[in-house]
Design goal:
The complex is a heterodimer. By secondary structure, chain A is α/β, with parallel strands linked by helices. Chain A is built from six helices and seven strands; from the N terminus they run E-H-E-E-E-H-E-H-H-E-H-E-H. Chain B has a five-stranded antiparallel β-sheet with strand order 10-7-8-9-11, with no helix packed on it. In chain B, strands 3-4-2-6 form a four-stranded mixed β-sheet, covered by helices on one side. In chain B, strands 1-5 form a two-stranded parallel sheet. The chains are: A alpha/beta, B alpha+beta.
């Protein structure tokens, strides 16, 4: 059975677990623990290892959705999943202290994946805080990767239709990117 | 360190109106330069003051020096009732202009006077060459985007309740979803006006950014042909992805956008790369240009005598695993 791994990353409280719950066809396997950092994200629990969900395409194929914990002390988990991942859905909450800084830090960390595969940024909680705009995120990332134009969408992680758009854009982006990589090679 | 502040006071406000003002302030926040806060007192007095801090800057709290209306710069600002969102926004912007020393960004509030029944909307300050169709609407939106001139747009589609757009701030309100608009055969009519007596109440509902309307008008303005604002035989490169969560779109259109995000292409090249009908690609380019999301590639202007495509063989060599993954994903979802 072919497996296609999509990595869901982002800072704590951005909505990673919620996004996987919106997309997954199975009950999400979650490793939540009590949140001891209520200042960063005011929620009772947080992911400490992995969230896992999956989408069955047919008898032979599944899309596996892995959500990694947002805290940097768990970044060893990021590397494990990154090696197997086809693409990245990065969730960033717009009401974070420094959402642009958070986004660029994650994009830089997953730079190899961004370059070899693709990435989509889903900005959540734009209904709470409308700035920075999607263009602000793109411009900030462009300073590090001038040739990469990452799709940035304002999304509600609870909304399955919107998360389907994000995943579709990611798969299309990966497909569009692959021939150019071959040319470079 | 202190910042100057402006206070706006109005009295005789009951609890319901206080709630309304608080709600309006939330809606107005995205369009203001600085953070405004509201103080309510038990005696029906409401004071709104600008902190002078950037909006949502939760990490830059500094003491705010409240400036008394009486000894301010001679511009005490008083909000009469009834308060409406656009009026409130105008007054707050005006106050921000006073604080920064810049010219006021909006005229000072004047008590609302009902327009005479015979008053016609003011003529548009720019020529709209198109007719009452999607092309005419697209041209109007393009001009408004370029000039950022104040004005209102009233758009009626198939006789439904009208859509209202504020052309300067780039927001609209519609009592329907744009994705419900079926196809290019819609009968549309629109008019542009400088103001409307009920302007405030028109925009009380949650507003949306105007990009989806620009997108729709761009797609339908000149189906399959270059729009008047699009140069033919030019390579285009995407600057920003549109927010597809808000735009009615197809997967084919998404695929075209993805191709343009990776390299500059002409319409023909993008059609081959995305395996799409060139007419569809042209429509997408028309729309992206109208929204302002693509740029001409100055280094690769194509003429008929030049080679027909970029070096990359984007029409070939699609990795079968990835391609089939997308294909199966599309089949699963039925698009």
């Amino acid at each position: 059975m072919a497996e296609h791994v999509i990595l869901i990353a982002g800072p704590m409280g951005a909505g990673k677990t919620t996004a996987i719950e919106a997309l997954s066809e199975i009950p999400v396997v979650s490793t939540e623990a009590a949140n001891t950092d209520r200042e960063t994200a005011d929620k009772p629990t947080t992911t400490v290892a992995l969230d896992y969900g999956e989408i069955t395409l047919d008898d032979t194929d599944k899309i596996r959705l892995y959500g990694v914990p947002g805290q940097r002390r768990f970044d060893f988990m990021w590397r494990i999943i990154e090696e197997r991942a086809l693409g990245l859905i990065l969730l960033v909450n717009n009401d974070a202290k420094d959402p642009i800084g958070e986004a660029t830090a994650f994009v830089e960390h997953f730079g190899d994946l961004v370059k070899r595969g693709g990435a989509v940024i889903c900005v959540t909680r734009t209904d709470v805080v409308s700035e920075p705009s999607a263009a602000d995120y793109v411009d900030a990332i462009r300073r590090t990767y001038p040739e990469i134009i990452i799709p940035v969408f304002a999304m509600d992680a609870r909304d399955r239709d919107q998360m389907v758009i994000a995943l579709t854009a990611l798969l299309i982006n990966i497909e569009a990117q692959s021939p150019l990589e071959q040319d470079v090679a | 360190m202190t910042r100057l502040s402006h206070t706006l006071g109005f009295a005789g406000v009951d609890q319901y109106q206080q709630i309304m003002v608080r709600s309006m302030l939330t809606h107005a926040a995205p369009y203001l330069k600085s953070e405004w806060q509201i103080i309510e007192s038990a005696d029906g007095q409401v004071v709104i003051f600008g902190t002078g801090a950037p909006p949502n800057n939760q990490h830059c709290r500094v003491p705010v020096q409240l400036v008394d209306d009486a000894n301010d710069r001679g511009d005490p600002l008083q909000l009469p009732t009834p308060v409406r969102l656009m009026r409130l926004l105008e007054v707050l912007k005006h106050a921000e202009g006073l604080l920064s020393g810049e010219p006021a960004s909006a005229p000072m509030f004047k008590r609302e006077v009902a327009a005479p029944a015979t008053a016609a909307p003011s003529p548009a300050p720019f020529a709209v060459t198109g007719g009452q169709d999607w092309l005419g609407l697209a041209q109007l939106l393009l001009t408004a985007r370029s000039n950022a001139t104040p004005g209102l747009l009233k758009l009626t589609i198939d006789g439904a309740a009208p859509l209202w757009a504020d052309l300067k701030t780039g927001v609209y309100y519609a009592p329907f979803s744009l994705s419900q608009i079926a196809g290019p055969t819609n009968v549309i009519s629109f008019e542009r006006m400088d103001d409307h007596p009920e302007r405030g109440s028109l925009f009380l509902a949650p507003l949306k950014k105007i990009e989806p309307l620009q997108w729709l008008a761009g797609l339908r303005g000149t189906p399959g042909r270059p729009a008047p604002w699009v140069k033919p035989d030019v390579r285009f490169r995407l600057k920003y992805w549109p927010n597809l969560a808000e735009l009615p779109h197809t997967v084919t259109q998404m695929s075209i956008i993805a191709r343009l995000s990776h390299s500059a292409m002409t319409v023909e090249e993008a059609a081959r790369a995305s395996k799409a009908d060139p007419a569809q690609v042209q429509n997408v380019v028309n729309a992206l240009t109208l929204v302002g999301l693509v740029q001409e590639d100055a280094t690769a202007r194509q003429t008929p005598s030049q080679s027909p495509g970029p070096k990359s063989s984007v029409t070939h060599a699609q990795p079968p695993a990835v391609s089939s993954l997308l294909g199966r994903w599309r089949r699963k979802l039925g698009f």
